[in-house]
Design brief:
Blueprint (H helix, E strand, L loop, with lengths): L1 H6 L3 H40 L1 H7 L11 H32 L1
């Protein structure tokens, strides 16, 4: 970004596109975190319920890593792929706008 700005005389339109891209990355990171949290919140209670009886019998706590479960991984990968497609489309639009300003 700095290199393009250094070469450009009229920096205003280029900065505007860069600002949009930076905001897009910020929203993408937040969306990834939310998308990851959703299946985790959904699967964790289910796994804890199924493990509740043996835990009570043994009177020990069983730590279940939800993120390693195959169902969680499948759901996470599908959700992440859908999210990536959405954001890649918007990023491509910004790239095209940037090319038009050059």
């Amino acid at each position: 970004m700095a290199g393009i700005l250094a070469l450009k005389e009229n920096k205003g339109p280029v900065r505007e596109v860069f600002d949009h891209i930076e905001h897009l990355f910020t929203y993408y990171e937040a969306s990834v975190q939310q998308t990851f949290a959703r299946p985790r919140q959904e699967f964790e209670p289910r796994l804890c319920e199924t493990k509740k009886a043996p835990e009570q019998q043994l009177r020990t706590k069983i730590r279940i890593d939800v993120e390693r479960q195959a169902q969680f991984q499948e759901r996470w990968h599908k959700a992440r792929a859908g999210l990536d497609v959405q954001y890649e489309k918007v990023l491509e639009e910004h790239k095209q706008r940037l090319l038009q300003t050059l």
